[in-house]
Design a protein that fits this description.
Shape of chain A: globular
Distance between the termini of chain A: 52 Å
Largest sheet of chain A: none
CATH topology of the largest domain in chain B: D-Maltodextrin-Binding Protein, domain 2
CATH class of chain A: Mainly Alpha
Largest sheet of chain B: 6 strands, mixed
Shape of chain B: globular
Helix content of chain A: over 70%
Strand content of chain A: under 5%
Distance between the termini of chain B: 74 Å
Number of strands of chain B: 11
CATH superfamily of chain A: MetI-like
CATH architecture of the largest domain in chain B: 3-Layer(aba) Sandwich
Order of helices and strands of chain A: HHHHHHHHHH
Mean pLDDT of chain A: 88
Structural class of chain A: mainly alpha
Low-confidence stretches of chain B: 32-42
CATH superfamily of the largest domain in chain B: Periplasmic binding protein-like II
CATH architecture of chain A: Orthogonal Bundle
Mean pLDDT of chain B: 88
Number of strands of chain A: 0
Oligomer: heterodimer
Number of helices of chain A: 10
Number of domains of chain B: 2
Structural class of chain B: alpha/beta
CATH topology of chain A: MetI-like fold
Strand order of the largest sheet of chain B: 2-1-3-10-4-11
């Protein structure tokens, strides 16, 4: 069996980069929405959560419409000679968009749990908002944020529909493990497909299990939970 | 959760499951009642499921209209996809009556597994591979122009599962340029996807069938595959052995290579093999 292992590296690269992007955008969005007290909170939250519920083909459609050659942002990029469709970045984009709601929702849940008194105390001590966010809020919300990041990574790793539509199937560049599996089955190469299936199964399982143990450890080490 | 709330949740879940099962089986009993009623009234409504290669999408619309007009008790339902995809579905037991493939390979594989009804197969259509570009562009005028630097993305069907991709790769192999072009290929899961990519300009060029190019006004044909540059394209049609409507399926396949159908296929640019 002439085995090409590039899907493995492409998948890891893509999922990792997408998770990094989602991490920062997700946390920022989560914090901004937590602070926001306006009437549109429900709608804003709904829009940010939407990519999680929409079928990946719908997301692929939107990404194509926006970043394609005739799309809103695509037109601009093409004039600068930048093409996103059918490149690795499109795969990262697709993965980041589907993973975003997971990061956002989990981070938001973690932020909402924070005791505001601690924040007020920090403010009365004259600490800037930026430092409060990174030195007080994020550490307090850390178990939730970490869980969000891991879930985002897992989702990014498994992304297929939107990726196929905007990044296409280019071996060595955008053929991630899910794509490799699909095309292996289509082409009748069941052995190859099985190998990839097993690989991604164990990677995903390992990631989730490690997260469970780590989160459990984190929670145990928090002052309130010592001795529990 | 308190004991009482827990009980309520369990009851709710069971009710939902029960309702779902009840409603779906309810539909089946209603349908079979209608069926027996209509049979006793001497007209049998038959639904034929036809799995057809993606490139047949447009022409089959007209075939369907023509056939259903002459045979009012038959409804045709089409399932389009890459020939390999459809072949796999049939192997896995999909309830298909007729299979029309874009390559003899897929039909041969089904015949080997004994899934085709004996004597019903007919290789009746031909096609040509062409190179298309988005209409309005003019940098490419021949296969060799694909080697130029300004051509970055070339749409082509995944050769292992899409016949059009297989024929195109053969063509490029015989032209001696397939290896240099490989880095520009974007593999599609069926030929219509390639057409779409070229239509939207996301691919600079693509390999599709002459019939696909004809069906779209957003692409322009710049080159045609010369004779003998790839395995001759034959579309075989056959009845699936497991079909519950063998007789009706055979009738439909016979229609596909009748003179009436020939006119329709040739209108869309297909080559008819007598």
């Amino acid at each position: 069996m002439n085995m090409d292992f590039s899907p493995f590296w492409i998948s890891l690269k893509t999922a990792f980069t997408a998770t990094v992007l989602t991490f920062f955008f997700g946390i920022s969005a989560a914090w901004l929405v937590t602070k926001y007290r306006g009437k549109l909170k429900g709608i804003v939250d709904g829009l940010l959560t939407l990519p999680m519920i929409l079928p990946p083909t719908v997301l692929g459609f939107f990404l194509l419409a926006v970043f394609g050659r005739k799309g809103l942002i695509g037109k601009l990029l093409y004039s600068l000679d930048i093409q996103i469709i059918f490149t690795w970045w499109a795969a990262v984009l697709a993965a980041a968009v589907v993973a975003f709601p997971l990061m956002y929702k989990t981070a938001r849940g973690a932020f909402e749990q924070i005791d505001m008194n601690i924040i007020y105390a920090a403010r009365t001590l004259g600490v800037s908002e930026w430092i409060i966010f990174w030195r007080v809020i994020v550490p307090l919300a850390w178990p939730g944020i970490a869980a969000g990041a891991v879930l985002a990574f897992a989702r990014a790793l498994g992304e297929f529909g939107a990726t196929l539509m905007v990044a296409g199937n280019i071996p060595g560049k955008t053929r991630t493990i899910p794509l490799a599996i699909f095309f292996a089955v289509e082409g009748g190469e069941m052995d190859k497909a099985l190998l990839w299936v097993a690989l991604i199964f164990f990677i995903s399982l390992a990631v989730i299990v490690l997260m469970n143990y780590w989160c459990g450890y984190q929670r145990k080490s928090m002052p309130a939970n010592r001795g529990r | 959760m308190t004991g009482k709330k827990k009980l309520n949740v369990i009851l709710l879940v069971y009710s939902v499951i029960f309702l779902t099962v009840f409603l779906t089986s309810c539909d089946m009993t209603i349908r079979s009642t209608i069926n027996t009623k209509e049979i006793s009234e001497n007209s049998k409504p038959i639904e034929l499921t036809v799995s057809a290669a993606a490139s047949l999408k447009d022409v089959m619309e007209e075939i369907k209209a023509a056939y259903e007009k002459e045979n009012s008790s038959i409804t045709l339902t089409f399932n389009f996809g890459s020939s390999s995809s459809l072949q796999k579905q049939i192997e896995q037991g999909a309830a298909v009556d007729v299979f029309v493939s874009a390559a003899t390979k897929n039909m041969d594989l089904l015949a080997e597994k004994g899934l085709i009804s004996e004597g019903t197969r007919k290789d009746f259509l031909g096609n040509k591979i062409v190179l298309v570009v988005p209409s309005g562009t003019s940098e490419i005028s021949d296969f060799k122009d694909l080697l130029n630097d300004n051509v970055e993305k070339i749409g082509i069907g995944e050769p292992k599962s899409v016949p059009a991709g297989q024929y195109s790769e053969e063509l490029l192999q015989n032209l001696g340029i397939v290896d240099s072009l490989k880095s520009k290929f974007v593999y599609a899961k069926d030929v219509r996807e390639v057409l779409l990519w070229v239509e939207t300009g996301n691919a600079d060029a693509g390999f599709v069938y002459e019939t696909d190019a004809k069906a779209s006004d957003k692409v322009r044909v710049v080159a045609r595959a010369p004779e003998g540059m790839h395995t001759p394209i034959f579309y075989p049609a056959a009845v699936i052995k497991e079909s519950k409507n063998i007789k009706e399926a055979e009738e439909f396949v016979k229609f596909l290579y009748s003179d009436k159908a020939k006119t329709i296929f040739e209108k869309y640019g297909f080559l008819f093999i007598d």
